[in-house]
Description:
mainly beta
Amino acid sequence: MQSQLVCNGCRSILLYPRGATNVCCALCNTITSVPPPGMEMSQLVCGGCRTLLMYTRGATSVRCSCCQTVNLAPPAPSQVAHVHCGNCRTTLMYP
């Protein structure tokens, strides 16, 4: 089973096996720490700059580190999937 997180360096989505403590990004070589077990993560797209944001599930708002927009987090965890646009590499989300 794999989990995912956002690279601290280039903001790419990284997949990693459960139980890993750190993940090295293949694009920028940044090492990103994996959140401890029990800290389930959710994702949303920033309303200001369209960056994909990851946050701890249960948060009520999320500040984007790129544009500083404060985004309201959905009250219930929603199940969404992600795909990268083959033309511009933008991350797209869908139910």
